[in-house]
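Title: Comparing notes on inverse folding

I've been comparing how different people in this forum approach sequence design from structure. To keep things fair, I'm posting one structure and asking everyone to reply with a full sequence. Here's the target:
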């Protein structure tokens, strides 16, 4: 299993970023996929999940209405559109095949700061 997240960076509060995840080594189209994050000094936090179908998604309350998860089963890619970013969204973001992050790849750092 290989999961590689990308697209992180430094953004001002209220700004947007789009994260991407390239997946390989497993049956991506048959697997629920997750975005999780870990803020400095804190544990893993579930952010969003998407069913094997492309239009059945779930969100943690703290990102609902601001983040949008999507997937392209033809390209084995997972995305997370993040809008209206807040300083508390600062974290290392990972894509994973489970909400606890037992099977996750290399993360991408998102820093929200003015």
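Reply #1:
Here's my take.
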């Amino acid at each position: 299993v290989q999961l590689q997240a990308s697209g992180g960076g430094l953004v001002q509060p209220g700004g947007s970023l789009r994260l991407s995840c390239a997946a390989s080594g497993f049956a991506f189209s048959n697997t629920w996929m997750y975005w999780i994050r870990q803020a400095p000094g804190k544990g893993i936090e579930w952010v969003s999940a998407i069913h094997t179908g492309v239009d059945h998604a779930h969100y943690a309350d703290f990102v609902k209405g601001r983040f949008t998860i999507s997937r392209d089963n033809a390209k084995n890619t997972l995305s997370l559109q993040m809008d209206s970013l807040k300083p508390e969204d600062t974290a290392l973001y990972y894509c994973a095949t489970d909400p606890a992050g037992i099977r996750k790849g290399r993360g991408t750092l998102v820093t929200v700061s003015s």
